Amino acid sequence: MDAGAWLAWLTQRAGDAGPRFAAAVARAAEPERASGLVIRFVDALGDQGLSWLTRAPRALDALVALAAFSRWAGDIAVRQPGWLVDLVDHQRFRQVLGRRSLGEALARELATRDPDIGVHDRLVRFRQREGLRIVLGDALGELSFESVVRELSDLADVLVQAAVDEARTRLSARGVAVHPGFTVIGMGKLGGRELNYSSDIDLIFAYKAPDGDEGEAHAAFQKLGAETIAILSEHGPAGWLFRVDMRLRPEGDRGELALSARETIDYYYSVGRPWERQAMIKARAIAGDLALGQWLMGELAPWIYPKLHAWSELDHSRDMRRRIEGKASARDLKTGPGGIRDIEFMVQFFQLAHGGKDPDLRGRATLPMLRVLADRGVVPAVHAHELDRHYRFLRTLEHRLQVWEDRQLHELPAAPSERESFARRCGYAGAIALDATVERARARVRELVARHYLTPTQDHDAILAFLALDEVDAELATRLLAPVGFADVGRAATRIRALAHEPFFVLRRGATERSLAQLLPTLLVQIRQTPDPDETLDNFAKIVSAVGGRSTFFELLASRPAASRLFVDLAGWATFLVNLLQEFPGLPDDLIDVLNQPPRRLGAQLREARALIAGLADIAEPLRFFQARETATIAVRDLHDMPQVEVSRRLSELGLSILAVTYERVVARLGREWGFPVEGGRPTRFAVLGLGKLGSGELSYASDMDVMFVCDPGGSCHRNQRGGEEFWTRVAQELMRVLKEGRLYEIDPRLRPWGDGSDLVANLPAVIAYWAQPKDLWERMAMLRVAPLAGDPELGRTCVRLIHDAAQGAPLPVDAGTQVRDMRKRLEESVAGRDHVKRGPGGYVDHEFIAHFLSFGVDRAALPAGLPVGDSIRRLAELGRISGEAAEELVEGLVLLRFVEARMRLTAGKAVSSLPTEPAARERLARRCGFSAVGELDLALHLARESGRRWFDRLVR
Description:
Elements: H1 3-14, H2 18-26, H3 31-45, H4 47-55, H5 59-69, H6 71-79, H7 81-89, H8 98-111, H9 119-139, H10 145-173, E1 182-186, H11 188-191, E2 201-207, H12 214-233, E3 244-245, E4 258-260, H13 261-271, H14 274-279, E5 284-288, H15 290-304, H16 311-326, H17 340-354, H18 366-375, H19 381-405, H20 416-425, H21 431-454, H22 460-468, H23 474-481, H24 489-499, H25 509-528, H26 533-545, H27 550-559, H28 561-573, H29 575-583, H30 587-595, H31 602-613, H32 620-639, H33 644-674, E6 678-679, E7 682-683, E8 686-690, H34 692-695, E9 705-711, H35 724-741, E10 747-748, E11 761-763, H36 764-772, H37 777-782, E12 787-791, H38 793-809, H39 816-830, H40 844-855, H41 869-878, H42 884-908, H43 919-928, H44 934-955
Parallel strand pairs: 2-3, 2-4, 9-10, 9-11
Antiparallel strand pairs: 1-2, 1-5, 6-7, 8-9, 8-12
């Protein structure tokens, strides 16, 4: 409708509600369609419709949303306006009914007899009404993708069941008796409960005939199947239900419409083809005799998921995918390159490959199985997450294509005007923006699917020959290993063959070769995905050298891809942890056990650490093992997409638990020797305060600990009459010694009052006196992340309040900004010539200094001590000290810079913050950080540092 006609209608009919109607329509993706639907709806319902649109809270929004979402649903709303009123008034569009409730609703619909409306028309009306409900919930954002596809599938289930029932009734009226043992198997997206808005439904019929009546029963079941299809496909006055596709049945179009369950089983086990095996992954009993259908699927499960596959059969999946793609249009979201089928076929391939041994991989729906593949380590979690996101995106676009006119479409519109209209209906500014998003998504899908699925894996026989031959077969080695990306294939071949050599002569080499051959395809794929395959293989060999029976170890990894992924990730991304695995031979097994449990918090870590050292004189060794295992656990979860903030928090909690139990042991031992110090009849107190990243829970790998020791003044020890402060100084010294000599943590106490030249432990009056005097800005900034860690909690909190109030609340000098900029410049100069992500220009010290500088003068209640830098920046934005834009950019840059630093430290095992300058090393770092090329890493770092420096210059003044 043109603008003039709409304005005239508003003036004549809408009255006082006109401005509201006009505003709602103006916000629509296509205002002309929206205004036209509003007028048609009001014309259909009259003044009552106008009144309802005016008063009902979401009525107008619902109608406008339908206009941009589905012409088909909009037409239904005009033909049946009462349905829309009911859906909105009772908010039924938010409901997820499921099969049972839908079946009950359909039964009520069919029980209401109206001689003017036949059963078929009632079924069509039910589909349209429930379809309108689902579309409206989708259009208003009330139903998730999963809810939409499950509701569509459950709706199809109950309608197919109703069609079977009606077919029986019709046949009975014609004198054809049909026995009850008839089942309908849903295939494809219907079987997987992931149906589209306008999908065909793929069905298979099977039956169980009474003994002695097979001939007549067979003919009757054929008629029942044919009548069911006719009802589902029939075009009546009200419309139609579904297009039915029976080509997936045994023998396809040439086969009988229905076979007995036993004939069906015999067919698949005798002549079932690889593509049929893959298709049967989705098979689900949906109607008729469900118990018979479920029994049939149980009987077929060993055929669908054999424990051992001929590799050529599995490889057929790739060939089929390529053939389908070869016939597809580039605009086809479903079957084109990087389309929906890429993801579905990849998931089904791995289900076939591993489902025989892992029942959890026998599910029907794509997204849940993708998550299981990630859990099992078959597909990296970060890639599974990406594919999940792209799958939802592509399926959602496919829905938008189909729901517009209830047509089975998979191709983006070719005509420019239609493409523009479709883009706007999908929320994009135009076709260019939509096309760019689609191209990026499909390119990434194809990249990931090619990496994990479409690139052929080598067959088992070739691998076994490669391992078993006395001499390396150069041609075979090249065929197997060149695709992995080894720089030196010959050396890699020697290293891999050496893995099959047991160090103990009593163990048979043949068993080790077979178990390694079983593992090697997965192992090579996983190694190929690491930054430096040669280094990964070397490190993996070190891990293997630390285990006992290699055959058993390889069998474990082959049966549990997640365990294999764990050790390959450590070998490829965390070299220093590999050295720990060598140092502690029992650590690999322990690590697998811990990773099978939920992440543990500080309390659980403290309890285990205390239990590990109970009764032991030397506590360093068990704590070193504990630290190694927990660090490796954190690293594995880090490599599998744990947020960097969470990684830092868990590393900090690990450090705190080791510090706390070491402190407890040191105090207990010295207390037994000296006696605990007492002053005025009360024990004196001691506290360990954390500063910097330790205080704010932001430790990285290989971080040291900045601390301050404080105690009560005076006191004496009853066993040797030594002073209390001497006792606590000895505690601090012993704590530092145990942590350092045990290679646990370096303790840095230099930020204490009066620095290096002062007592190691400051008593409370000294702390009070020190902070009563004005302090340099650098020292005040250093104290903003102070937090109590160990010792007496009340003393710790008292000191933190005292120090933090003085550091944060004292007035600033007039040249504060200049002082901070000068400090920052000196730090830059200290790393001149190095590409330093921490201290260099735009490094994350910029972000820390911004947070600290802007914290001055803020009340402690609004900005408490010990906050992580990112949280401080966000809080400052909430307080209006910086803009939301600045906070968002700064936090994003901070996370990236610290993430890159953490990746470098995972490899080096020491506190490194300088980027490598050698091109190959920098390329490896880029891959370790998840970038496909060093240019992408450099660009991301440049943007983060440029942003950090820009905001530093603006805010620190």
